[in-house]
Specification:
The protein is mostly helical. Helices cover about 70% and strands about 0% of the residues. Helix 1 runs antiparallel to helix 2, helix 2 runs antiparallel to helix 3 and helix 3 runs antiparallel to helix 7. The longest helix has 28 residues. The chain is elongated, with a radius of gyration of 18 Å.
Length: about 170
């Protein structure tokens, strides 16, 4: 069996995976009633960024090394999401005495602080990001999200490798 997909097929698969991740996030928010913390919101931004890369790549469907560009951009978006999810997992693993105190809400910070300061404060974490709202098969939501980003990263990685191989960037093995 040969796995030889074109860039559009990889992009549509990535877009579908992003839609699945966002669908789960929105269902947890609007059906289950979980309110996303600031780190959850950053993770959603990473998913939407990856989805945008996959959408543009699917529409453009470049040949050759153009696929590497989309692959790298998708990998950056998935990697950024994995970093934020990893930070979230770390915050949840802290003993209660070491959890940072809750700060002001994201809406309030966006109104009064420059964007760089808001991002810095969000990534330093707060008490609300350390709360564990439940486990599914023994894993927290940020752990599942981290797994999702790692799986998502395989798609742009495959896009890049296939684009390099098909453009002659590496010798094919007969």
């Amino acid at each position: 069996m040969r796995l030889d997909y074109n860039l559009r097929q990889w992009s549509l698969a990535g877009l579908a995976f992003c839609a699945l991740m966002m669908g789960v996030a929105l269902a947890l928010q609007y059906v289950v009633g979980l309110t996303p913390c600031p780190l959850c919101i950053l993770q959603r931004i990473a998913v939407l960024s990856a989805a945008l890369v996959f959408l543009v790549a699917a529409i453009h469907n470049p040949r050759g090394k153009g696929g590497v560009v989309y692959g790298v951009l998708g990998l950056v978006a998935a990697g950024a999401g994995a970093v934020v999810a990893g930070r979230h997992v770390w915050l949840q693993s802290l003993p209660p005495s070491e959890v940072p105190s809750c700060g002001p809400g994201l809406d309030y910070m966006m109104e009064i602080l420059p964007l760089w300061d808001v991002l810095s404060r969000i990534l330093s974490g707060s008490g609300e990001c350390a709360e564990i709202d439940g486990l599914w098969w023994g894993l927290t939501l940020p752990q599942w999200t981290l797994i999702g980003f790692l799986c998502l990263a395989l798609i742009p990685l495959a896009m890049s490798v296939q684009s390099l191989l098909s453009s002659g960037g590496a010798k094919k093995i007969s």
